[in-house]
Design goal:
The protein is α/β, with parallel strands linked by helices and 233 residues long. The protein has seven helices and eleven strands. The protein folds into two domains: 127 residues, Nucleotidyltransferase, domain 5; 90 residues, 2-Layer Sandwich (Nucleotidyltransferase, domain 5).
Length: 233
């Protein structure tokens, strides 16, 4: 059984995958209570499945982009479980979890995640028909809803964490199609599927050195080392 945990933003999600199906899943929105909510909910999920951490086959964790606190807590707990129980660990970028739920589309897709202070982390993708997978179109950027709306000039499907302000702004752009709430929900069941595939392929991480992908500094400013300002969406 693989345990998947996603704490990248205020949407927390946990899932158990046995290789054939998602046998348990719990997704909820937290008011920045990652520390007090995560471990107890993992314990409940394992107890309902009749498992202990020693009986797990591996772990999958969301790497980010996401909030500084959320990623630090989730990755820290996942690494602690992996090291304490000698479990293989798979790290998955947060955008890939959102994309896993989407069917192929002709238009490009922009995935957004809440980054605080009225901004979002955004990245554009297109469906590569020959390789049958989503591939990035440029890098990750830290944007306001207004900037994102202004830069969209061709048919675009927007998916992910779109709040009320984002919904109001993007619906004024005729080139934009917004995902439905269920399409946009980031679920650990999708993370578990990716994690199980990579676990079987032997693509695991070193729990001692695995690091998160923040996408922004704790104060919300972009990392200077990244190329977000040069890559359009």
């Amino acid at each position: 059984m693989l345990l998947a945990l996603d704490t990248a933003t205020r949407t927390l999600s946990l899932a158990l995958h046995d290789g054939l199906s998602v046998v348990a899943e719990n997704t909820w929105r937290t008011a920045d209570h990652h520390t007090v909510e995560l471990a107890p909910n993992i314990a409940i999920l394992l107890r309902r499945a009749g498992l202990t951490p020693n009986q797990l086959a591996g772990l999958a964790v969301a790497l980010g982009p996401g909030s500084y606190t959320g990623l630090r807590i989730g990755l820290g707990l996942a690494k602690g479980l992996a090291l304490a129980h000698n479990l293989p660990l798979v790290g998955v970028p947060t955008f890939e979890i959102v994309l896993r739920a989407l069917a192929p589309r002709e238009e490009r897709v922009v995935v957004v995640l809440q980054a605080g202070r009225g901004r979002v982390s955004a990245a554009a993708y297109f469906w590569n028909v020959k390789r049958a997978r989503w591939e990035p179109e440029g890098g990750t950027r830290l944007l306001t809803w207004e900037t994102l709306a202004e830069e969209i000039a061709k048919p675009t499907f927007v998916c992910g964490e779109v709040d009320a302000a984002g919904d109001e702004t993007l619906r004024q752009v005729k080139e934009v199609t917004l995902a439905t709430p269920s399409q946009a929900l980031r679920r650990a069941g999708w993370l578990a599927e990716i994690g199980w595939e990579r676990l079987r392929q032997g693509h695991t991480e070193d729990a001692a050195t695995l690091a998160p992908i923040y996408g922004a500094q704790p104060d919300g400013s972009p990392f200077e080392a990244r190329s977000e300002k040069k890559a359009g969406v």
